[in-house]
Amino acid sequence: MRAHGNDERNRLTRMPRQGAIVAVLAIAGMCSSFMFTLVVPIQSKLPELLHASRDDTAWVVTATLLAAAVITPISGRLGDMYGKRRIVLVLMATMVLGSVIAAFSPGIVGIIVGRALQGAVVGVVPLGISILRDVLHKDRVDSAIALISATLGVGGALGLPLSAFVTEKADWHLLFWVAAALGSVVFALVLWIVPVSVLRTAGRFDYTGAAGLAIGLIGVLLAISRGNTWGWFSVTTLATGIGGILVLLVWGWYELRIAEPLLDLRVAARRPVLLTNIASVAMGFSLFASNVSYPQILELPESLGGFGLSLIGASLIVMPSGIVMMVLSPFSGRIARTVGPKLLLILGAIALMAAYGFTILFSAEVWQILVANILIGVGIGFGYAAMPMLIMRSVPQSETGASNGLNALFRSLGTSTAAAIIAAVLASSAAVVDGVQIPSSGGFQSSFVLGGIAALLALICAAFIPTRQTFEEKHPSLPE
């Protein structure tokens, strides 16, 4: 069986156009991350545009978050079983459908449904990383993974000014038509360039496990994302949060007792995988702490302690972080090949700590925020490149899709937690000016401290990740 798997892998590595495969998957990754910044320019205006309350319009963002968190690990397992390219195409088609629904919808229900369907595309990145392991020569895998990982930041950083420009110059529904057109192009490119998956896992899909994971995650993420609005100790928040945790505990018990689980928790519990996933939560938190706090302080009027930039101006200050991630991606691959991905993750965490330390000490000028954002780009570029490499060195090839999906889920937990906690910190210190809550300098400083603490946690986890052989080197007798 192993010989057959090696024959298939050797056939795939001889395929032409490997650079084109990487490029297409990178574009798909940027399309994925673009979905999270798509509605940022109109978020504050949604109550007026949709004739709905602010609590209701918050679901335009929350729906995407929930859908992405639920679909990502499930799509990873489906990709392992039924073909990674096939599932990528399904996710892209779902995103296009959601974009069209939102583009045609004048009311809030259609927008929320469309945004939820758009969230499916987030599963493309971990699947794309797994495809790279399947089809590329081993000497090219690390650099390609670094490039795909960089798109998680690049798409958002480049998409924000694009969304701001479209919003200011045209009807806001055009944003969804742009997303639909982009998704259609990526669908065609994947169909044309990316080869059909031949490395698959036999067995039946765990529908019960998928349902349990979905219910548990929705409960926990609802409590995290909506706790600031509902009240952290309200009955609704506690019921959804505790209920979600209980469902996940039962789900874990069930997964450990069936022959073909949705996620092999024994693999996920291995020290390298577990520590990498915990570091992913911390990295996700540290990234999103900057995404929430830096734009707000840049757009805040100068009379209130900010810099008074327009949305496009603030976007251009934030954008270089994504460009840095893209520029660093080839260097990330070389560092990983030379010294291993563990050091890459450590360097990423140190850069994030430096970014927040710099901001705490120096944040009186726009250029200082720009420098901090560049350091954020270095940290996330290195860290996000290292994490899938660490995962794939620690799991069998049959588990790459599901394991990368789980890692992406942990990053999402970090970002969603940061969105809720940083918003709560800024709101708790805010003063009301002309009926509008304005965050204080103390609130921003607290946000920067929390981002730095998260980076420190990532550094500690990275330091304790064992430097070992790859899974295949440790288990040469096991089938792939």
UniProtKB/TrEMBL annotation:
Which stretches make up the Major facilitator superfamily (MFS) profile domain?
21-470
Its localization reads: Cell membrane
- Entry GO MF terms: transmembrane transporter activity
Provide the membrane topology annotation: Multi-pass membrane protein
The domain of life is Bacteria
Q: Name one GO cellular component term.
A: plasma membrane
Task: Give the keywords, sorted.
Answer: Membrane, Transmembrane, Transmembrane helix, Transport
Where are the membrane-spanning stretches?
A: 20-42, 57-75, 87-105, 111-132, 144-166, 172-193, 205-224, 230-254, 274-294, 306-331, 343-363, 369-387, 408-432, 444-465
**Chief localisation class:** membrane
Database matches in Pfam families: MFS_1
Write down what this protein is called: MFS family permease
Q: Which organism is it from?
A: Microbacterium halimionae
Q: Provide the taxonomic classification.
A: Bacteria, Bacillati, Actinomycetota, Actinomycetes, Micrococcales
